[in-house]
Amino acid sequence: MRRVRIVLSRLRGILAGRRLDRELQDEIEGHLAEAIEDFVTQGLSPEEARRAALCSFGGVTQTIETHRDARGWPWFESILRDVRRAIRLLRRSPAVTAAAVLSLALGMGGTTTMFSLVNGLMLRPLPVQNPERLVSIVAGEETNSWKMPVWERLRDRAGLFDGLFAWDARSLDLAERGESRPVSGLLVSGSFFDVLGLSPQAGRLLRRTDDVEGGGSDGPAAVISAGFWRHQFGAAPDVVGRTLRVNGASVTIVGIAPASFFGPEVGRSFDVAVPLAIAPLFAPESPPEMAFHNLWLSIMARLKPGRDAAGATVALHTVMPGVLEAAEASLPRYMRLPASLRASMATARVEPAPGGPSLVRDQYDRSVVTVTAIAVAVLLIACVNLANLFLARGEARRRELAIAMALGATRLRLVRQLVIEGLVLSALGAAGGLAIAMWAAPVLIGEFSSARHAVTMALPIDWRLLGLTGLTAIATALIFSVLPALRVTGLGPGSTLSGARVAGHDRQAGRAHGVLVTVQVALSLVLAVSAALLVATFIRLHRYDLGFDPNAVLTLNVRLKGGVARLDDDALRHRRILEAVEAMPEVAAAAFGNVAVLTPGRMVLTLKHPDEGATPAEQEVFAIDVTPGWFEAMGVPLRLGRDFSWDDQPRRTLIVNQALARLFFGDQNPVGSRLGAYAVIGVAADAVYRSAREGTPPTAYLLSQAGYGPLSVRLAAGDPEQLAGRVIDAIVRTDADVLVGATPLAAFARATLATERVTAMLAGFFGVLALVLAAVGTYGVMAYSVGRRRAELAVRRALGATGVDITRRVLGRSLELAVAGVVLGMAISIWVSGLLAPLLYGVEPRDPATFAAAAGTLLAVAAAATWLPARRAARINPAILLRED
Amino acid sequence: MTPDKRDVLYGTLGLMVLKTLEALGPLHGYRIARRIEQISGQQLALNQGTLYPALLKLEQAGWIRSAWGQSESGRRVKVYSLTKAGRRQLRSEEAAWEQATGIVARFLRIREQAP
């Protein structure tokens, strides 16, 4: 307490210094006046009394000094003085300061933007109560999801955790029929909000009593997010109690979630949360037992006090076999899990999950970390420029510093002063960097979004981000100011003050600049190589031949409404929709396929090898159930045989792609051969199934007459995006009881490359920035060195060197440094590109052409940056210059 | 003045100030200085100026507080008064001093008797 008070009073002392000085002055004057009065009453003359009073007081100035020292911290005040001095000095050369601050701001803008993403994606815990106690229950390698009966049995095991909750994030639809209006839904257990420890912004949150079939006292209840409340309801104050239609079912809005809560998953924000138990209301078209069969729930829990994740795992293992047993026993045989999956679930792990699970994190973490490292390297390059600048300025100020030292300033004191100048600059840079990050980070997050996921993320400026930025600023300042400060204060005052140029010292200074240029070129080379590799990866993937042309294709999600229908009815309705779409003049071809290509979805078919005794005897291949015309609609050419027709027998015929044909038949024509129960009737060209990175796997196409899954429509002409509405209208006119959403296939194609695109974009940007900074740095050093060596160069001219000789000399020196940098950079790049390997595609990490191109670019940049200084050097007129000195 | 002497003086000066304020109630700087000189029987030649840093330290520690007021002759002066914490501090310092002086006194007596 006392400590704190002293600190506070001292702080006040520093801040209110002048006022306190005046007060003390007043007090002392009062004191002296009283004393004089006393002495006068004792019979002294006013003059004598005054002298006596001053005498008994002692030194007035000394008192004020002591008082001042006791008031604040002298060292703090002297640092403040240094800061003020630094600001004065920086203001004296505004152009240089602006350039320095700008390059620092660019460098720190990069790092801070990336820190902000790292923070939002990986460091920031969920905005809930005590997130550090949250854990995820991880099923195993194969799946991370659980089925309903397991959850129902696990949630009642009260002893394991301080509460468990389960949820599923899925798209819900506000439209009942016609064009769909998807919203981001959250199906949550009744314990969800309670275990997370959230309180509502309005109304109430979901409770355990809501999580029962048909809903609780309010009927089927829903909680909406604050964002949804604002953009869907215009922040209407009376929203609680209103009815919302979701997937055709009515739910009552009982409350609004707190504004900071985006959901349990970083990167995705929810609009509407409804209890798990009323899930069947939202999927009337799927058989209700599917909710019990499918693996679809994520389960999280809160650790009991004093228990850690490892302890909870041990405890979980004691109950898990029993829970699984009971859960499986409750299901009909055909819905039970394969033994391997059950075994892996029995040994489920409890893992700390303060940040919740996140698909976006899984997808982007490696890229974000890589680009962050790149951004830090760019900042280092900017640092080198500043170090050069500080070195040059320090040398220019050497005389001033020498005088200060001669007058008794210690070296430490001078170094401190120079470092404080660095800190002031880097604080300004950090402020600029934060401003850049505030703008750039949300833009970047926008780039993460794709047709498949709208990525939203809270990117607040919190203590973590400020701390990281602050540390970066301090580290930056130390890097670029300590060494120059030590160097320029390294010489004693004598040699500098004598006015003699010490040749040896000049050479030393030149060497310091040279080392910095070399380091800078090396770093830039590493960045150029990394950026080139990442950009090449994206270009290769982007140019990858998908095996079809996605640009004229529209993918439509058609969901039939009207409860669970018989398979035949669905097939009939799908068929009618198909015919209506095909009849449109804008449409070239249309077909259903049960797997949406270019998404992570897949269907697997196990095929027997046609040859007896072949190994392996069976092969799992990717498969798609398609209606006739699918190949035309997708634009996948048929190489051999024919397409399916509506008259073919389903489950009897098969079309294979070339990869599969090669796998099973080598070079022979497979048409007419049999694969198990199937007759091969055609061979299709190879086409990408999930993503270009995975290439074109062996794929089998099966005939489907029911036509489930997305509808692919090839348009004869025009932009798929603009024609989407027309196609939807045609479908709705045919069958009013459907929900349709449309996405151009090209958007899915883009989505498969979202990570690579963002990575390449950022790496490319930082790579160019690195080159620019290196060019500026080299230019600066060479221009400075030419400036310093004017006398020497003039003497050379006078002694007969031609302008060309001089130019060659300067260029040669610069290239010498650049070559050293390139060699060093190559060595580092060989190591770094190995680290990049997992991100690369279609390009060798140590691709010689890339390395050579990067090296060439840097040498060219160095030569170009030296061109101007070299020309200036060549134009030095010895007569004029020698007269000057 | 050597630093050692001043330090000793600071320590005792603080105690004297606290004691003075306890005995006489709120006072301004000059009165405190005069009072200390009087009590010490003019033996302690106090540099009155040193009083002010000492007062500041006592105030920072929260043992005294100050406010602008008026002297007997109507001058604007800063008046210092003892706080509750100051009273407590005074108690404990008094006890410490008495103990210390007691020990020293006994020690000196023994030396007188020894030869």
Tell me about this structure.
- The complex is a heterodimer of chains A (885) and B (115).
- Chain A is of the alpha+beta class.
- Chain A has 29 helices and 22 strands.
- In chain A, the strands form three sheets. In chain A, strands 1, 2, 4, 5, 6, 7, 8, 9, 10 and 11 form a ten-stranded mixed beta sheet that branches. In chain A, strands 14, 15, 16, 17, 18, 19 and 20 form a seven-stranded mixed beta sheet that branches. In chain A, strands 3-22-12-21-13 form a five-stranded mixed beta sheet.
- Chain A starts with a helix and ends with a helix.
- Residues 499-504 of chain A have low confidence and may be disordered.
- Chain B starts with a helix and ends with a helix.
- Chain B has a three-stranded antiparallel beta sheet.
- The chains are: A alpha+beta (885), B alpha+beta (115).
- The interface between A and B is medium-sized, with 28 and 25 residues.
- Spatial shape of chain A: globular
Proportion of strand residues of chain A: 5-15%
SS class of chain B: alpha+beta
Quaternary assembly = heterodimer
How many whole angstroms does the radius of gyration of chain B measure? 16 Å
Succession of helices and strands of chain B: HEHHEEH
Largest interface: A-B, 28 and 25 residues
Task: Name the structural class of chain A.
Answer: alpha+beta
Q: Determine Rg of chain A (CA atoms, Å).
A: 37 Å
What is the general shape of chain B?
Answer: globular
Number of strands of chain A: 22
DSSP helical segment count of chain A? 29
Q: For the largest sheet of chain B, list the strands in their spatial order.
A: 1-3-2
Give the % helix of chain B: 55-70%
Low-confidence stretches of chain A: 499-504
Mean pLDDT of chain B: 79
Query: What distance lies between the first and last C-alpha atoms of chain A, to the nearest angstrom?
Result: 66 Å
Number of helices of chain B: 4
Major sheet characteristics of chain B? 3 strands, antiparallel
Beta-sheet strand percentage of chain B?
5-15%
**Helix content estimate of chain A:** 55-70%
